[in-house]
Design a protein that fits this description.
By secondary structure, the chain is of the alpha+beta class. It has a domain of 64 residues. Helices cover 28% and strands 35% of the residues. The strands form three sheets. Strands 1, 2, 3, 4 and 12 form a five-stranded antiparallel beta sheet that branches. The longest helix has 22 residues. It is globular, with a radius of gyration of 21 Å.
Length: 189
């Protein structure tokens, strides 16, 4: 009886390990633009452009606006960093391409009338991307992608946009948080 119990536990640990390996974000291919820059094509149709390798460390691209840098694409796991360094050096592993899972991690309200929130979405817990939630006319919302990110898989792109846009319609959502200047009511003294 103990032997069967031990074998079952061992089987479940092995199955869990294999599922984790399959669900991890994998580098499918890499295309170098300049001597130090490259475009990374990840499993599931995620493309990150203009990634650099400096002194053995991967530097993710950033967006610049009004003399500020915004790091909208960040690496969360050391495993992904190692895969990217190996790909830069031409040693990428051939692993199965699986559509990554994603999760909305955080929504940050902003004071702008146009870009009302930043929504952080993590892909397989290894890569986190900050999407912008834009308020359009008549209360409609749209998703703003980082400059260096592209999702080529249409199904994944629609699912991500749907989850990000859900943050617009929630009660007390960022899109409804701040009325326009002409709609504000001020207390009289």
């Amino acid at each position: 009886m103990k032997k069967i119990f031990v074998e079952l536990i061992l089987f479940f640990f092995c199955a869990a390990f294999l599922l984790c390996r399959l669900s991890a974000l994998n580098v499918r291919s890499i295309r170098t633009n300049f001597p130090r820059k490259a475009d990374f094509y990840f499993s599931g149709g995620i493309v990150v452009r203009d990634v650099t390798l400096k002194r053995g460390f991967v530097k993710m691209p950033f967006d610049r606006s009004k003399n500020r840098k915004y790091f909208n694409i960040r690496i969360l796991a050391k495993n992904l960093h190692t895969k990217m360094v190996r790909a830069f050096r031409g040693l990428s592993d051939k692993e199965k391409s699986v559509v990554p899972s994603f999760k909305v991690e955080e929504t940050q309200k902003l004071l702008s009338r146009f870009r009302v929130a930043n929504v952080n979405v993590s892909f397989d817990g290894e890569l986190i991307v900050t999407f912008g939630l834009l308020k359009l006319e008549r209360g409609k919302c749209a998703v703003s992608y980082p400059k260096h990110l592209e999702i080529t898989n249409g199904i994944l792109k629609k699912r991500v946009e749907k989850e990000v846009l859900k943050r617009c319609s929630l009660p007390g959502s960022p899109a409804r948080a701040r009325p326009r200047k002409k709609d504000r009511v001020y207390a009289e003294k």
